[in-house]
Amino acid sequence: MKRNIxxxxxxxxxxxxxxxxxxxxxxxxxxxxxxxxxxxxxxxxRGAESMARLLRxxxxxxxxxxxxxxxxxxxxxxxxxxxRDMPVEPVVPFPIGVVYRDEHLLVVDKPHFLxxxxxxxxVFQTALARLRVELGLPALSxxxxxxxxxxxxVLFSIRPEDRGAYQLLFQERxxxxxxxxxxxxxxxxxxxxxxxxHIEKVRGVMAAxxxxxxxxxxxxxxxxxxxxxxxxxxxxxxxxxxxxxLRVHMNSxxxxxxxxxxxxxxxxxxPDDYRRPLQLLARTLxxxxxxxxxxxxxxxxxxxxxxSDRAGWETGPGPRPGARAGTETETG
Length: 332
Description:
The protein is α+β, with helices and mostly antiparallel strands. The chain contains five helices and 15 strands. Strands 4, 5, 6, 7, 8, 9, 12, 13, 14 and 15 form a ten-stranded mixed sheet that branches.
């Protein structure tokens, strides 16, 4: 049964919805007021001080827009809303190109370095937040996610009632995806070839790993479509959608994708260092629209620059001294 959730009393801020929280049951009366519950919930974290400040400043609202304070009675099951204070994010200085739009569907060309959806330190500088503001589509939602380092096609649902239908395209693998990648060329590695392995990604660890001997959960068709000056252009067709799958599979061949800050060695590039984008592009999406029945084949208008300009790619910056695996919040 669907919960009866009141409408949010706070608007979006720069394309970001307010945080919604529902207060849990309190059968033993542990919390006499709202402030004591929030202090206990966020105890030992930076959120404790932040929540106390939001309460003091009248920035926590209940249903109907009622301003809540620390001394208000604790009401199990009640909803509250607030916007977190977020640090300033480096601006990703690349546009998002619109490839296709109708009343149900939006397909865009996401640039390198821009996350698809808010997570971790990437909130306002994400494709979702920027598109909501730039296109005036506050209800926009993603049907899938593309790795922050990867450029290319991303599909969004414009209307909330259509979102599930578009997400099922990806969950049920009823959409064909092709990627383009640039990596070293080794004549000893034969193509085409199908790569199968078991990939695991541990939360909080930057690099995914292949588990030898485990049942495969990732499959990629890799084809060599061009060679120039020791560089190969590859068409990669994933049949599954594991985190970092294409990057892991190319690295397993000894052919890591150019500009990859994780494979084969975890690096530590500055957040605003845009000199060496990962040379991986979500090139095409092919599917039948589950809402309109229209057969689509979308193609990215972006290009991978290392194919025409190799300067600096072979001798570019490596991992910084002391670089180690850190928090990773991307998928794709």
